[in-house]
Design brief:
This protein is of the alpha/beta class. The chain has 17 helices and 20 strands. It starts with a strand and ends with a helix. The mean pLDDT is 97.
Length: 469
């Protein structure tokens, strides 16, 4: 079947070879700092004693080649019922998140510290919206003791959605207890994995001990995990997009090598968040070049035959505003049209400090349309319909043809906002689109139901947390 389909490609074969070759040069000559003795010993045994100088490890090209051959080409992710949810690589998959300190009220965009009830409500929202394939750790719960914050947050996640979970654990010491909690309420996590830990090395070229320890723990339980670096051009990565792309790619290859040395055949998802450092402040932001780097990273992972995780177009807005809307459209459109894999962190504002349920609801609509755009349309005898065109003839109309009556309900997107003429808009009191978004968000937050086993999961998880003291 002939499909008219938009496709974004940013790297040609020569450029792919250049990025890979330069990445290998960084690893073999500059090397990476590996803070964990356990991880460093693994790398030293594989690379040879001459490759290690203190905590610096130089990784030879042949070790990278071995890891590329050892890593699985696909990662299957399941829901909490043990049913297949999605597979990477494949079409772009989206999730809400991530680790926000504040909650942005959809009524007026005011912010309050992120609480346990905010976690429950936000996760239910992610469960209810069909464009989202998974739910990430949307916030850091601050109205419980810090020693149990990660446990309580994860319990609210698993109790309020059946979708796959991408978990980010703030306290390194809580990582194993969180996995113990999930096993307590669910059972074996590795049999049909619905939990995907998200792990961060430190740019430039550092595999910190907390990240490598989590790699050991996740692999030991048979879990796939995301190994994703966060670069700030001009601060932790070079100022140029080219330098940032190559450096981040080298870091991902270093993580891949370690992942396969820890457990050969361990499923890992690789990707980058390529931001820019704000030279006038202390924050970071996404530029148009960020999205090109993200696309290029996805193409490098496709070249390697590995699953990818990319940026989510969030963090830039002040609320449910035009700034957020623009980045949601740009990110999701290029993600669906390129080779982007997982897009797990949709819905935060103000430098990723505040979670905005309104932006999550808006993004659900954007993702629907971006997917329709990327799928294109079929071009064949049936879809062209020359017989129908001849039958209608010059000056006729297609309002009541059989094909129009059969297809018009599926022919276009029906989303969050109704289509109004000027007269319709005036007759309805000149409604404001942002108010429609806020009202719809409030409705969903008030009505989104929990899973049927919500109370049972909360009770069993609560007992586990209480038993830890």
């Amino acid at each position: 079947m002939s499909i008219v389909q938009p496709r974004l490609t940013v790297l040609d074969p020569e450029q792919i070879a250049r990025v890979h070759g330069d990445s290998l040069r960084i690893l073999s000559s500059t090397g990476v700092r590996v803070d964990s003795p356990r991880a460093r010993d693994l790398l030293a045994r594989a690379a040879g004693p001459g490759a290690v100088d203190g905590n610096l490890v130089r990784i030879p090209a042949e070790l990278v080649d071995w890891a590329l051959g050892a890593a699985p080409r696909q990662v299957e992710v399941y829901n909490r019922q043990g049913e297949p949810a999605f597979r990477l690589p494949g079409e772009a998959r989206f999730g809400i998140g991530v680790t926000c300190l504040y909650y942005q009220d959809p009524a007026d965009d005011t912010v309050t510290p992120f609480s346990r009830r905010h976690m429950a409500a936000s996760v239910r929202l992610g469960e209810a919206l069909p464009s989202f394939d998974c739910v990430s750790t949307v916030g850091i719960v601050q109205d419980v003791p810090a020693r149990v914050s990660d446990l309580v947050a994860t319990l609210e996640m698993v109790a309020n959605t059946r979708k796959p979970l991408v978990i980010l654990i703030s306290d390194d010491a809580a990582f194993d207890p969180v996995l113990d909690l999930l096993e307590h309420v669910h059972g074996d996590l590795g049999r049909a994995p619905f939990v995907v830990p998200y792990l961060n090395p430190i740019s430039p070229l550092v595999i910190n001990a907390g990240t490598s320890d989590k790699m050991f723990a996740a692999a030991g339980r048979g879990l796939p995990y995301i190994y994703s670096n966060y670069g700030m051009a001009g601060a932790s990565t070079p100022m140029t997009p080219a330098g940032t792309l190559v450096l981040l790619n080298a870091e991902l290859l270093a993580g891949l090598v370690l992942s396969q040395l820890i457990k050969e055949g361990s499923p890992v998802i690789l990707g980058s968040l390529p931001a820019y450092f704000d030279m006038k402040g202390i924050g970071s932001f996404y530029e148009p070049a960020s999205y090109v780097i993200d696309l290029a990273c996805a193409e490098m992972m496709a070249h390697y035959g590995l699953p990818h995780c990319g940026s989510s177009g969030s963090g830039m807005g002040w609320g449910s505003d035009l700034i957020s809307a623009g980045h949601q459209w740009l990110n999701h459109l290029v993600s669906c049209s390129g080779k982007i894999g997982l897009v797990p962190f949709v819905g935060d504002n103000l430098g990723a400090m505040a979670l905005s349920p309104a932006i999550i609801v808006y993004a659900n609509d954007v993702i629907e349309q971006a997917r329709l755009f990327a799928r294109g349309f079929a071009l064949n005898d049936e879809t062209v319909g020359l017989d129908e065109i001849a039958q209608v003839g010059p000056g006729g109309d297609y309002l009541t043809t059989r094909r129009t009556l059969r297809l018009f309900r599926q022919a276009y997107h029906r989303g969050l906002f109704v289509k109004l003429t000027l007269e319709d808009w005036e007759s309805r009191g000149s409604p404001d689109a942002s108010r429609v978004l806020r009202q719809r968000t409030a409705e969903l937050l008030a009505t989104a139901p929990p899973p049927a086993d919500h109370d049972d999961v909360l009770a069993r998880g609560g007992e586990f947390i209480a038993a830890r003291g």
